[in-house]
Structure formats: C-alpha cells, structure tokens
Automatic annotation (TrEMBL):
UniProt organism field: Streptomyces bluensis
Top-rank taxon, per record: Bacteria
Pfam families per record: MDMPI_C, MDMPI_N
Mycothiol-dependent maleylpyruvate isomerase metal-binding domain ranges (all copies): 11-139
Assigned keywords, A-Z: Isomerase
Residue ranges of every copy of the MDMPI C-terminal domain listed in the record: 147-233
Protein's name according to its UniProt entry: Maleylpyruvate isomerase family mycothiol-dependent enzyme
Any one GO molecular-function label of the UniProt entry: isomerase activity
Length: 242
C-alpha cells in the first residue's frame, strides 16, 4: 500500500535538502556538466522544475507533457538560467505540486504518465521522490547514492526490480542484498521477509546478483555499471534504459 501523505512529506524534505545544497553553487558551477551525459547542472534543475509541473498535470487529469519534444525543448530553454532563477523555479514548482496534492482526493484513481505508462495516483508522490533524490545525486555536488535515506533506497530497489521483472531483455535473476534479503526479478516468484525468516527458500534462477544497497540501486537506476556487484551464474546483465 502506498502512503501518499508520508511520501509527500518525504518529497518536501528531499527538496529542501537539494535546494540547500544547490544554494552553495554559483552561476559558473550550474553551467558545468552534471553526472548525466549531455546535461549540465542547469539541465537537471530545469528538469526538476518542469517535472513537478508535469505531475501537477497528471493529478489534474491533463497529459503529463504536451509532447516529448516539448518536454525536451522546455529543459533546453531553462537550463542556461542563473542560479537564483533556477532555485526559485524548483521551489515554486515544488510548492505547486504540494498544493495540488494537498487537495487531491481520488488517490486510488489510475493516472497516465509519459509514453502511455499508467499507475495508481497514490504512487505519484513516490515517483516525485525518486526524481528529487536521484537527480540530487546526479548534480554531483557531494550527495551520493550512499547518502540516500535507507527507506528510499530499499523502496526504489524494489520498484525497479519489479519494473524489470518479466522484461524480455532482462534475464530471470535473483537480487540479494548484503543484509541477506532477497529481491526476485525476471520469472521468479515474490518472496516476503517473513517467508525468508521462516526458512523458506525460493526457487533460484541461474543468475544471482549480490551487493550493497547503494551499488544495487546504482546498477538498477543506470547510475553505476554494476562492477562492484558479485554475480553468480554469468555476467552482470545490461539493463535497458529507464
């Protein structure tokens, strides 16, 4: 079950962390390359602002973006702006998202996102939380995957594992964390912590990927190449882009 109120509070906290950290930049550093290929830090800040407005559209029943080309054009337009304008836009758009969500009523409703993807409205705040946390890392200003809140890291690993489960380009595999917990992917049944604690052992696929949470998240989210992970049964799979 999604707790949208909890996730909205988490989004607010994550946004404040990002804005506080980004305020230490200057105009020259905003124009420098980020950790995302082809994007400056300004591109990331512009994307975060426009994504907040796009999720307002989703909650209000409008298309998330007018088109993919319009989305990209808006980011390119806004990327070169000075730091103070960027930060004000991120904050103002974040406030608009929070205000819209505060009066939204039908959290069980199915909403449409980009490229025909649908989801329950209650998951929209978590999707925004993903955007803020991962793009804070992408800014490359001292906030890394190891610094993410533990709850967020675990939920995002679960979310991405479920997203890739059954994908035709992803082999069946078992993801094991260094604390011993197991996340199935591919054609493997879901296994709860209670089942594992009782001694239940799921049927294992040929491929097992094991590692620290931050490294697993980095690999699943396309932020690390997986070289820090331990793989049994073959090579680390190349995951399709998100």
């Amino acid at each position: 079950m999604m707790d949208h109120a909890h996730d909205l509070a988490s989004v607010r906290d994550a946004t404040e962390r990002l804005l506080t950290a980004a305020a230490e930049l200057d105009n020259a550093r905003v124009a420098e390359p980020s950790r995302l290929p082809g994007w400056t830090r300004g591109h990331i800040l512009a994307h975060l602002a426009r994504n907040a407005d796009a999720l307002v559209n989703v909650l209000q029943g409008r298309p998330m973006y007018a088109s993919g080309a319009a989305r990209d054009a808006d980011i390119e337009r806004d990327a070169p702006r000075p730091l103070d304008v960027q930060l004000a836009d991120v904050r103002d758009s974040a406030d608009r998202f929070q205000e819209t969500a505060s009066v939204f009523a039908d959290w069980s409703r199915t909403v449409e996102l980009r490229n025909g993807v649908t989801d329950q409205a209650a998951r929209v705040p978590f999707r925004r939380w993903i955007e803020v946390e991962l793009h804070h890392v992408d800014l490359g200003i001292g906030y890394d995957l190891e610094d993410l809140p533990e709850e967020f890291t675990q939920r995002e690993i679960d979310f991405l594992a479920a997203r890739f489960r059954g994908h035709p380009d992803v082999p069946a595999l078992l993801i094991k964390q260094d604390d011993g917990s197991v996340i199935p992917s591919g054609a493997v049944e879901s296994v709860s912590a209670e089942q594992l604690a009782s001694g239940y052992e799921p049927p294992l696929p040929a491929l097992t990927v094991n590692g620290h949470r931050a490294d697993l998240l980095g690999w699943l989210a396309g932020r690390r190449d997986g070289s820090a992970l331990h793989v049994e049964g073959g090579a680390i799979p190349s995951l399709p882009p998100l």
